[in-house]
Design brief:
It is a single chain. The protein is an alpha+beta fold. It has one domain. Helix content is 23%, strand content 26%. The protein has a four-stranded antiparallel β-sheet with strand order 2-3-1-4. The chain is globular and about 30 Å long. The chain starts with 9 loop residues before the first strand and ends with a strand. 19% of the residues are buried. The model has no long low-confidence stretch (mean pLDDT 91).
Length: 73
């Protein structure tokens, strides 16, 4: 995943799902990644060409019954 310093990274968390990180990673487009952090899965990336956190990543995860919430400041 290449960084784009003109846009802020988007971050989402799946609480208590660390054991599913490999499955969750398969749902990610190339501009997003998922990593286990403690008991949670943290998703980080940059919106690009329709591959967005709210319009693609979170709905795609939901289609597999995985719930993710964006982390905002």
């Amino acid at each position: 995943m290449s960084e784009d310093n003109t846009r802020p990274a988007r971050i989402a968390v799946m609480r208590g799902q660390a054991d599913r990180v490999e499955t969750v990673q398969r749902y990610m487009p190339s501009n997003y990644t998922a990593q286990a952090v403690g008991d949670d899965v943290v998703i980080v990336g940059y919106d690009n060409a329709g591959w967005t956190l709210h319009d693609y990543v979170i709905p795609r995860l939901a289609s597999g019954l995985h719930r993710a919430e964006e982390v905002t400041a």
